[in-house]
Write a structure and sequence with these properties.
The protein is of the alpha/beta class. About 40% of the residues are buried.
Amino acid sequence: MNKTVIPSALPAIPRNGVPVEYPVGQRGFESDIIRHLNPKLFQKEIDKSIATRIKQTDAIRLKILPLKFLENDHIEVAMLDSLNLPGEDFIQRIFHARGKDKLAITRRLVTSMDLQLAIDYVFGMDELTIDKNDEQEELVEDEGQILHDNPNDKPAIKTLRRWLREAINRRVSDIHLEPVSDDCCRIRFRIDGVMNNHQDGIPIEHYRMIINWLKIQAKRKIEETRLPQDGGFYIRTNSSRIDVRFSSLPIIYGEKIVMRLLDLGKADAAEERIEDILWSADIRKHFLQALKYPNGMVIVTGPTGSGKTTTLQSALKYVQQYYAGLQHDKNIVTVEDPVEYRIPGINQVSVKESIGLTFAACLRSILRQDPDVIMIGEIRDSETAEIGVRAALTGHLVLSTLHTNDAISAIPRLVNLGLRPDLLANTLRLLQAQRLVRRLCTACKQRVTDTSKLEEKLKAAGLPGWLRSIDASQIFEARGEGCNECENTGYKGRIAIMETLPINSRALRAMIENNASIDEMLIQARKDGYRTIMDYGMELVQSGNTSIDEILALAIEASTDDLSNIFAATPAAERHPDGQQRGPRPSDNPPDTANRHARHPTTMPAGMQLDINNFKTRLSNWLSPNN
């Protein structure tokens, strides 16, 4: 060992409060100092009956492992960081007996490699293998190499394998590897839609080795660092198969890597019933009715990652089973980029733009294949939109997705793509917008006892009257420290929140055909019983599925121009046809009235612009019980 590095490395440890190996590792002497000060951790030093009292996911997340009890009831704990206070608090909660003094912990500093090997020894290693393939959607029979640590691996590759195992165990949807300076990188995990910082201080030399290894698995060019590259490979575990989508992007400090993980075992559309996704009775009624039409268009809108594909794939499974029950099978064909869920009995086509197999090219061929139901992964251009409408007009049921902030905005978006309003009026059956919000952890959620803080939050968001529309005694919130089940976040999993606009009233169809403005159509939709995402969001809060903070994340960015038109043009008697209070409509982006109406031929009526203070006052009055 090079001992000359110890004097310069040790002072950095207490100052930075980071694992002891990082200051040394960044100088090129990875873990030397720990190995010098602490002997290697051997299996015989681990008492499995003690170590298994915590879960493997907790050991990985907190980077700790209880080893054994010492004399005087001290417990020895392996850890990377002597300042790992969250880990020590966790050990106290697990092992501390009630009525006794605080448990004494003896820290055993180990390298990250020794800790991972110890965790693998205690809990067993889930065997992972790699499928190398050239095209993301094609399964390769050769499983490739086993994703175990092997003696020939460099330390950086062993670390990467550990990250992949941990990501699978923690339900990570995206892994971000990104250089943050000329000599250092970091890794972040996205869990339930929220980005979490996982590890900092990765030496740049290790990072380059990781990128090259990933490029080899995805069969991308190792030498190409100036252009973005996309690829993919598969990870097989003992119980599942993980689709890994690889993407590289050149940034100022090097290449940023993002890997999206899709568990093909858990994400089987056959297991995700549309009835479960559509948890609201009226949304379920409208959506399933639209699927029973022999022709027309059903469009689901929302941002990337809002669950649109899951909804449509489950809808296809419902259509397949519905007509099978009637002994009237349907020819169902999909065009996707790429195929995510594989559904038996449905013909699925994957777009390959590199060879000219685009959405439009696929659709032209599909129409000659005698289809009954067509699913278009996304309407991206005018040609795809035109073919989709033509198919709906000629007796086919067409399902697709679109990127808009809300359901009603899909109409001017399609007009902007070149479709005639009269054709849309005759083909649209239903528009649905959706988002995903985090679900409260059922193990630790707690009932709100003091609503004053909620009232302050709502007031700060300009929505002081919301609590009057629901039973505040039934509101739950995330417990501050969370629990082991939710990894101390208070949330576990996500649930879809939706708004559905059935195009079934003559008045609304006439407005679409006459190219009416969004605001005019919104007023008519409200009269027809249209409810926004925010309305359904309050139902989720009332049922205890999510917190008001999650719904406010949508409300804070809400667009005010549509509601201002409602207040200006709708009589008070028509605002609440069922006598219930309503919340504001959501939006995915901050208000942009000029751009919103510039997309549409009509303009915002004069005098409808409303300053924000006046809007908040009128909204408060509108929600008042006296109205």
